[in-house]
Amino acid sequence: MTITEDLQKLLDILPQDLKQKLENHPQCNNLVEVILDLGRRPEARFPHEAEYLSETPVTQLQIDDCIQRVGTFGGDNRAGIEQTLHRISAIRNRSGKIIGLTCRVGRAVFGTIGMIRDLVETGRSILMLGRPGVGKTTALREIARVLADDLNKRVVIIDTSNEIAGDGDVAHPAIGRARRMQVAKPELQHQVMIEAVENHMPEVIVIDEIGTELEALAARTIAERGVQLVGTAHGNQIENLIKNPTLSDLVGGIQAVTLGDDEARRRGSQKTVLERKAPPTFEIAVEMTERQRWVVHESVADTVDTLLRGRQPNPQTRMVDEKGKVSITRQLSLVNGRGNGLGSEQNSLPAVKQVNGWRASGQMVALPPLSVEAGRGSQSEFDRLLDESFNYGDTVDFRSSKLAGPNGEDLPLHIYPYGVSRHQLEQVVGVLSLPVVLTKDLDSSDAILALRSHVKNHAKLRQMAKARHIPIHMIKSSTIPQISRGLRRLLNIDEPDIGDDKELQLFLHSGSDDEMDALEEARLAVEQIVIPKGQPVELLPRSPQVRKMQHELVEHYRLKSNSFGEEPNRRLRIYPA
Asked: Is pLDDT of 55 > 90?
């Protein structure tokens, strides 16, 4: 990074004794601001500490002397120094006399937006959030320069307090080819924003400190005209904007909606809920938690919707090291409570148990591509895994095995069933010899297999699963096909060919020839008529128990079937999808 600061020009306005002390100070290059308050000792502030510069209190004469060396104070009580980025802010008494000064060092840091340069180049609107002093204006200035010089766009900066492009009529070189529009009074910022679009044909508008409802409305108007917006707002996180009625329009606005009984029941929520009113003005939000650590919400709409549903988003965390290398991670979010920042390390819960796989790192990784061994190209992937699972049963103790599951879990996979028939689960696991162990202890489980209807109406289960970072896999009903399909998803096993003998055993009850004939009849009907020709088929009359097996087999093909007719001639009719 290259830093341009013109620090000497700021030191020149200070009293002589303070100027000399700061010039000889070992941390002079890290100076953040100098505080001069009437009747108090002068103070110098650095990034991680503050110290007094003199034991002699500041006098009114010293303050007046400083005021003469700077520009005119505007309606926002700010002044600057010609051709620099420094800012001098005034504190007045009730009669309007200046009795305190905050002399803040302005620095142009080239290369500070390396963390989000890829987002800047997308052309989408970006909102920067963060506490005072974290570097929002510095980042804004660098974004304007990159857009104007490197991407050759027409950039106009709305510089309300002359903080982005410096004091005076000539803009500071740090903004590159970008143009700057000054604002006569802070309350007129929204008018200048609209004027910039109407008069100067910009492709990008850069705004610092959007703080009023009129400015938020002007920003929406600009965004809807197809102009890229880059701005900062008062707020530390997106949650602060949602709760701020003045600025909530920047993230789409919030409105109360009354749901119907069916919809409320489907969502498992109250009848009156909060929802986003409109598309957000800014499509991307960046929370500047620290100078070298930013949290990026790539889709503000999704983040706001997630927060309004009582869940925590999972944004990107971007950090840059001393060598300038950017690392991007995603942190698992806290379930209840907000903490200091969404997705930050401070928000992670203490581990309930020793976890492995993706829950240990908090990151999902791509699965390695599955390969079929040479000479077995005609064998399905399911057959290969099935053969391996048979070997597990003969030679390997599941509980001591350290094989990796789909997301890095140790196999066998410990599954906590909820609302699902344990007998049917054991039948599927036993027949297919899957590396699965059923457990009654939620803390020791790797996943939860549950009925969708049960999970929807059981908020406590969802909350406990989130707190323990245990994924919930839902199935529609406690039937053999649904359970088999759910376990395959958990183990990342492909759907088998239904004609496999092992698979057909799942649907057998007594294993009689009559049952086998009935299942084979249904299988042939589906594979030779219903699916290829798209025609319904009627099967031969069967007993109720056998018809139930045929229904389950048809469901495995994701087709529908009905029983019709009177006993003993009641039979199945299979319909195409």
From this structure: yes
